[in-house]
Design goal:
146 residues, alpha/beta, Rossmann fold, 6-stranded mixed beta sheet, 6 strands
Amino acid sequence: MVDILRFRTDEAVDHPAVTVDSFLDQSNATAVRIEPGDDARDLLPHLDRLRLIEINFPTYGDGRGYSAARVLREAGFAGELRAVGDVLVDQIGNMRRCGFDAFEPDQPLDSSDVENAFNRWPDVYQATGDGRVPIWNLRHPGSADG
């Protein structure tokens, strides 16, 4: 089993995530797993009771999970957002920018490669889900359009 890379200080969820369909049919789950083809917007009315949302990347080329992450973070989801599956080190910097704060890759990632991926571009030009301020806003604080 590959270790989970987690960048949060709260306690980790200690039970498995259920599918979106199962979650919508029950009332007590606090962890859900989004598969490609699931609509993250179905979870928006329930974000206040979720502690963990896993987003599955069955192949590295399937980018739908990035959109799901942005939808959830922009809607105010503050719980753990975990990328699972075919997660590669060259993707995790962009995944973090979309709001992922935990990663469970199918294959182990070298810790120094992970650190380098997160620090490769310290400044960003677009709004992000990881809290970094876009460089145009640093140059012109309070500007809405740079």
